[in-house]
Design the sequence.
C-alpha cells in the first residue's frame, strides 16, 4: 500500500487508540443568556440554514476526517448515508491519495459518499501545500471525484512540520488559494486542522476570494500529537518530541471564531466542538455552522444508525439552547449576545488592544 494511503490508516488507528485530545476550546468561557420567557413554541423552532446555496436541516457539519485507504470506505459510507438521511453537510478527508494514486479501492473510499448521499451537501478536500503542484485542473478532478458541492483547502503546516516526511514548503500558498478560488467550479472553503485561523489570516483569505473559512481551532484532536505517535513508531524521536511540545499550540476555537467572523461573513466553527450546545455557542459568536469530527468516528464504525442517533442528539441539544434563549431561527440565535468570560475574554481583549 502506498505511503499516503498507509498514513491515512495510521491516523484513524491513532485517533481511536491513543490520547490525542486537547482542551481549551474557550467554549467553557462562553455563556448564552437565559431567556425565562422565550415566547416561542419549542416544536416550531426552525434549525434550517443555507450554506453554499444548499438548504441544511441544521447548522451542523460532519467535518473532514478520512478517505484514501480501503479501510476507510465503510466509515465514509456510514457518515454520508447519515448526512443524506438527516440533511446536514459532510466533508471528506484529504483527497491526495485519490488524485495521485491510480487505485480503484482508494477511489471508492471517496466516491462512496456521493453514491449513498445523492442530495447531501458534500465537500472535497485538498492540501494547500499541494496546490502549486496540482493547479486548478487537479483540484477540479477532486471535485469531480465526489461530485462535490464545495472544496475545502486545508492548512496543516504544524502537522507537516512534525511528520518525518512532511511537506514544509509553505511559499506561494496564498496565491495558489486565490487562483483556485477564482477558477474552480464550486465554492472554496479554507480550513485549518486544529490550530485555528487568526483575524489577520482570515482577512488575507477574504481578500483572496474564498467563500468560507473553517477555523478548526485548538481544543479538539491534536494533529501534532497524532504525528508524534507516528514519528515515535518509526524511531524519529526528535520529531516526536516536537509534536509533543506543540500539541496544545494554536488559537482556541472560540477566539478563532470571533476573529474570523470579524474578517469574513461565512465562518464554520470547528475544533473541539462536542455538543449541540457548543454549536449554539459558536453560532452566537457569529459562525454560520458548527463542525464535529472525532465524535462521529466511533459511531461511523458501528453503522449509519449510530451516526444518525448522534446527529439527532446534537439537533435536540441545539434546539434546547435555541428555546431557552428565545431564538426561533438560526439567524435569531446569531443575533443573541453571549457573555464571554475568563481566559477567552482576556485573549480577545489582548488581541484587540
Sequence:
Amino acid at each position: 500500500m502506498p505511503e499516503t494511503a498507509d498514513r491515512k490508516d495510521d491516523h484513524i488507528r491513532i485517533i481511536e487508540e491513543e490520547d490525542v485530545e486537547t482542551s481549551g476550546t474557550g467554549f467553557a468561557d462562553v455563556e448564552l443568556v437565559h431567556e425565562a420567557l422565550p415566547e416561542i413554541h419549542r416544536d416550531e423552532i426552525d434549525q434550517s440554514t443555507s450554506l453554499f446555496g444548499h438548504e441544511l436541516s441544521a447548522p451542523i457539519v460532519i467535518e473532514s476526517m478520512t478517505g484514501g485507504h480501503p479501510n476507510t470506505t465503510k466509515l465514509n459510507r456510514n457518515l454520508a448515508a447519515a448526512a443524506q438521511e438527516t440533511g446536514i453537510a459532510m466533508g471528506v478527508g484529504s483527497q491526495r491519495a485519490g488524485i495521485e494514486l491510480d487505485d480503484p479501492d482508494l477511489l471508492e473510499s471517496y466516491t462512496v459518499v456521493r453514491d449513498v448521499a445523492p442530495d447531501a451537501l458534500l465537500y472535497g478536500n485538498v492540501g494547500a501545500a499541494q496546490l502549486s503542484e496540482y493547479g486548478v485542473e487537479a483540484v477540479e478532478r477532486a471535485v469531480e471525484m465526489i461530485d462535490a458541492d464545495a472544496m475545502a483547502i486545508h492548512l496543516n503546516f504544524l502537522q507537516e512540520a512534525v511528520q518525518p516526511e512532511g511537506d514544509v514548503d509553505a511559499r506561494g500558498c496564498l496565491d495558489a488559494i486565490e487562483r483556485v478560488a477564482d477558477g474552480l467550479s464550486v465554492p472554496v472553503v479554507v480550513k485549518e486542522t486544529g490550530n485555528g485561523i487568526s483575524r489577520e489570516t482570515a482577512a488575507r483569505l477574504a481578500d483572496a476570494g474564498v467563500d468560507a473559512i473553517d477555523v478548526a481551532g485548538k481544543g479538539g484532536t491534536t494533529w501534532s500529537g497524532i504525528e508524534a505517535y507516528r514519528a515515535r513508531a518509526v524511531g524519529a524521536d526528535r520529531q516526536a518530541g516536537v509534536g509533543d511540545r506543540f500539541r496544545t499550540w494554536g488559537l482556541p476555537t472560540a477566539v478563532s471564531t470571533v476573529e474570523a467572523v470579524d474578517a469574513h461573513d461565512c465562518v464554520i466553527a470547528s475544533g473541539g466542538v462536542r455538543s449541540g450546545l457548543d454549536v449554539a455557542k459558536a453560532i452566537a459568536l457569529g459562525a454560520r455552522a458548527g463542525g464535529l469530527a472525532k465524535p462521529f468516528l466511533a459511531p461511523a464504525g458501528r453503522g449509519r444508525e449510530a451516526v444518525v442517533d448522534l446527529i439527532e442528539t446534537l439537533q435536540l441539544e441545539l434546539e434546547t439552547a435555541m428555546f431557552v434563549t428565545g431564538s426561533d431561527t438560526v439567524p435569531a440565535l446569531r443575533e443573541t449576545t453571549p457573555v464571554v468570560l475568563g481566559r477567552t475574554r482576556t485573549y480577545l481583549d489582548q488581541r484587540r488592544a
Q: What stands out?
A: The mean pLDDT is 95. The chain is about 50% helix and 10% strand.
